[in-house]
Amino acid sequence: MGLDINMATILADWIERYAIAGPMLTLGVQQLSFTSEQFRQADNRRDQERGSAITTAADLFSACGIEATFSLDISTDEGADFLFDLNNPLPPPDLVSRFAAVLNGGTLEHVFNLPNALSAITRLLRPGGCALHVVPVHNWVDHGFYQISPTLLFDYYTAARFEIFEAAALFYPERQPDRCEIEPLVPGACGVGSSPDFGHHRVLCMFAARKAAGARDEATPIQSLYAAEPVRPPPSLRWFAPYSLTGGVRQGGECTRYALGPFRREEGRAWLAALPGDIAEGDAPDAPVRSRLALFEDGRLLGPAHAPHALIRAKGGGCYSHWRDSLLFSSSDGSDPNRNGRYYTAIIPRP
Asked: Which is nearest to 104 in space by CA: 181, 157, 41?
């Protein structure tokens, strides 16, 4: 278990953006694979004393404004503050609702009973507390019991009535351990029931959700792929333009916005939107999740993207498909996008 400089930079951003407070609990004793100076260079928005060392997770989160950080593990071998087996969904009473944030930085995949571990995390959090996850998605065979699909986190925390803030895919190229490409993860980003080819990249998912009023300590989700209606991205979910981090230093992240309309009815609940000629080609049979186009209705992200055209025509609900040089989409409520008074925007990340 450990955090590299790029993960630490993203966590620092999230702590600031979502006003995440302490006390923080880490699952396992988190090791840091970077130096204090590397973090200062990567995270130069914060005023830090040059002499303050960052050698532990507590140091890192203290530099981000969190005063107290504790750790929990199944044994005392690495000096954890609290002992608990996450195969049990019921933490000790003195730990229930105690923490403002729980960080799973590479523990969940090693716990055999995943549902119990997720329930334990929700119980450890106080109301308003944040669950933060770093989980392996691809090319981590035998690292743990599981490689975890993002849909597990989306569907579980939706069923548990959490407010989902952000999800990101981190792609690590071969032979470049200090570099990663970061892309937004939203429902349907990897296709609707498809299996995208991530090649030789190692892929992680980072995920943040807040325990809202009325949240459940136990939830049994049904995979959203099999829901009766298309599952739209949560209204609280942040979309961002893809970017890269090298040693925590950010590059890219720019995007171009296009106002859309008027629209032409296609079939059923589907509408066609004309796209400017300078937009890169969208999905195709040999590239079913190539498009990076994000579609917004009155500023709210629609989806799922990459939806089958038959689903758009039959169900609508905001699902869409950027297919080759056209955009097939549906409004959120099935209304005529030419007459419902809403504005539609396509956002395309710049190369």
From this structure: 157
Residues near 196 by Cβ (< 8 Å), separated by ≥ 6?
190, 288, 289
- In DSSP terms, 345 is beta-bridged to 259, 296
pLDDT band for position 192 (50/70/90)?
low
Query: Can you give the pLDDT at residue 293?
Result: 95
> Rg of the chain over CA atoms, in angstroms?
21
Contact 117, 146 (CB under 8 A): no
User: Which amino acid type is present at position 230?
Assistant: P
Q: Which amino acid is at 72?
A: L
**For the range 193-199, what are the long-range contacts, defined as Cβ-Cβ under 8 Å and sequence gap of 24 or more?**
193/225, 194/288, 194/289, 194/306, 196/288, 196/289, 198/137, 198/138, 198/139, 198/171
Residues in the chain, overall count? 351
Question: Parallel, antiparallel, or unpaired: how do β-strands 255-259 and 263-267 relate?
Answer: unpaired
Give the C-alpha separation, 51 to 275, whole Å: 53
With H, G, I as helix, E, B as strand and everything else as coil, classify residue 89: coil
Q: Is the dihedral of CA 304, 225, 241, 276 positive or negative?
A: negative
| Bridge partners for 112 per DSSP | none
Q: 143-165 pLDDT, tens per residue?
A: 999 999 999 999 999 999 999 99
| Position 40, amino acid | R
Domain boundaries, the chain: 2-250, 254-349
pLDDT of residue 278: 87
Query: Is residue 210 classed as helix, strand or coil in its secondary structure?
Result: strand
Identify whether the C-beta of residue 280 lies closer than 8 Å to the C-beta of residue 293. no
Rounded CA separation 213/312 (Å): 33
Distance CA 255, CA 145 (A): 38
The helix or strand, by DSSP H or E, that contains position 259, with its residue range, turns out to be strand 255-259
Please tell me the distance from the alpha carbon of residue 121 to that of residue 105, in angstroms, as a whole number: 13
Does residue 332 register a pLDDT over 90? Answer: yes
Q: Which helix (H) or strand (E) holds 116?
A: helix 114-124
Q: Which CATH class is domain 2-250?
A: alpha beta
